[in-house]
Amino acid sequence: MLEQTLRPEAPSDTLTEVDVDLSGVMDGDFGHFIVIVKPLRGLFQQEPYWQTVQAWVQVTQIGLDAYTDHSQIVAWTTALKDGVPLAGVSISAGQVGGMALTGENGIARFDIPDGATYLVASQGADQALLPRSSYYWGEDAWYRASDSDELRWYVFDDRQMYRPREEVHVKGWLRRIGSKQDGDVGLVGEAVTDISYRITDPQGNDLSSGAAEVNTLGGFDFAFTLPQLLTWVMPRLPCWRRVAWME
Q1: pLDDT tops 70 at residue 238
Q2: How many domains does the chain contain in total?
Q3: Phi/psi of residue 176, each to 5°?
Q4: Phi and psi for 25 in degrees, rounded to 5?
Q5: Do residue 126 and residue 198 come from a single domain?
Q6: Angstrom distance (rounded) from CA 139 to CA 120
Q7: Which 8-state DSSP code applies to residue 116?
Q8: Of 61, 62, 56, 5, which Cα lies nearest the Cα of 33?
Q9: Which tens digits make up the pLDDT trace of 100-152?
Q10: d(Cα 80, Cα 82) in Å, to the nearest integer?
Q11: Which has more confidence, 89 or 148?
Q12: What is the model's pLDDT at position 52?
């Protein structure tokens, strides 16, 4: 621990850059420090919190980034001097585990260790830390999440603008969107056999509701007749309720 007082040689009320030399507390070429900088406090003077600056300083030559999906972490290490990928860097997820080594492209992949709040990249005596969140009060951790496929649909009608008592024709298609690493766009198959729908006017009043069958290609269609109204009506489409969920 080092505590010292610096007296900047600068005019009063002038923005001035002051260097804080950490070489006296370093053990080698690398290290991690918490630096707290605050003005001197007089005998009867309070210490405003906004005048205190706390900074986490990393002395390292490893650049560390991480990207995640629902189940895996992709860690990427590069040299801070020239951006060249670093191979053979050991990646661990804090005290939780998840050890992996980066390849020639500087990338390592491993399953998300639940509860990990930071990553550590180590190469010899050099270490770089990457927290899950840099928020002061944050204790966010990585975790694996179950992910399921979802339904998407495309819907259209014949003319969009209609008069009272006219018949509206609606058609659409459903598709299954895979959410995992090998996810793709596909047919819904037998997972969805019908859909329900609800039609409302521009004021939110219910005009009609019903159900329609879904064919093997994910297509569906239905028609309804508008009631006698005093104004023209544009159906608010789509206004759907899904009747089947993809597991």
Answers
A1: no
A2: 3
A3: -95, 125
A4: -115, 5
A5: no
A6: 17
A7: B
A8: 56
A9: 999 999 999 998 887 888 999 999 999 999 998 877 776 788 887 777 788 88
A10: 6
A11: 89
A12: 84
Q: Are 73 and 93 in contact (CB under 8 A)?
A: yes
Give the CATH number of the domain where residue 115 resides. Answer: 2.60.40.10
Q: What is the CATH number of the domain that holds 178?
A: 2.60.40.1930
Task: Count the Cβ atoms, other than its own, within 10 Å of residue 128.
Answer: 23
Do 86 and 55 have their domain in common? Answer: no
Residues 158, 218 within the same domain: yes
Rounded to 5 degrees, what angle do the CA atoms 32, 5, 54 make? 40
Q: Are 101 and 89 in contact (CB under 8 A)?
A: yes
Is residue 154 located within the same domain as residue 223?
yes
Residue 79 in any domain: the answer is: yes
Rounded Cα distance between 121 and 80, Å, is 13
Q: For residue 22, give Cα distances in angstroms to 58, 116, 128.
A: 11, 30, 17
Per the structure block, which two tokens stand in for 128? 């770089």
Location of structure tokens 């969140």: 133
CA 210 to chain centre: 38
How many CB atoms sit inside 10 A of residue 89's CB? 26
pTM strictly above 0.70: no
Structure-block tokens of residue 26 = 């370093």
Tokens found for residue 215: 């064919």
> Within this chain, do residues 126 and 88 fall inside the same structural domain, yes or no?
yes
Q: Could you give phi then psi for residue 97, rounded to 5 degrees?
A: 120, -150
Domain residue limits at 78? 62-131
